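Hi W.,

Here's what went into the run:
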Amino acid sequence: MKAMVTTLALLVSFSSVTFADTIAIIGTGQVAKALGPEFAAQGHDIVYGSRDPDSQNAKDIVAMTPGNATAQLPKDSVRDASIVVLAVPGELVEEIARGLGDLSGKIIIDPTNALEGDWETELSMGVSTSNGRIIQDAAPDAFVVKAFSTLNWRQMVEPGGDISILLAGDSEAAKAKVSELVSAMDLHPIDLGDIDNARWIEGMTILWLNNRISGRPHFEFHLRVVD
Ligand SMILES: NC(=O)c1ccc[n+]([C@@H]2O[C@H](COP(=O)([O-])OP(=O)(O)OC[C@H]3O[C@@H](n4cnc5c(N)ncnc54)[C@H](OP(=O)(O)O)[C@@H]3O)[C@@H](O)[C@H]2O)c1
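Here's what came out:
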């Protein structure tokens, strides 16, 4: 019975594109600056979660965001949010997710990559599972969706052609909601299964970055869906 009520609540809260969501974006860096204004332009209310919400950088990102965006401390920023974006350093996701308090029932969008190695020569994965799995374990009652990790922030704003956004997550309803956000940015969502598949998506970023580092052809991921 509890599972049925939870599923129904999830469907009701995630089902409509017509309602504005409050989206907390943790971080005020490049990905936050790309996704925040994009989601605000779709009519959502944006709250940035910053360690220093009074900084000039936080003021700048609020100013570049349509609507009534604000910046607050990370834990405060998630309080009224139905969606939380972790636009933070990949090696810190567990600590940052745990520091946000109770994330039960919220969708967490995870664009992060846990990279180790040398940006001049070769990168590799810095975790034995994936950041998506680590975040899901840190917030077991939230709905983590891996998304936006395999493209540069510039292409989030100006795709310049077809680009797939590879999704992984255990909740179909949460992936459907994130797909709406993605599609409205002229990007193409593609569902790659449950959250453990985040490992392979994060591996794709390693391929993508190492190709670039080594001087091999740079590319974007565009998967052609067939029947
Ligand atoms: N850059 C890209 O093109 C791109 C594309 C796809 C995915 N990604 C991934 O997305 C994530 C964010 O990337 P980004 O380029 O936006 O990173 P970034 O520019 O370095 O911004 C990270 C943000 O995290 C916040 N933060 C919280 N705790 C922090 C700490 N202890 N140290 C440093 N920053 C902290 C900071 O905001 P406050 O100072 O306001 O707290 C900072 O602005 C990374 O995992 C990256 O791998 C990046």
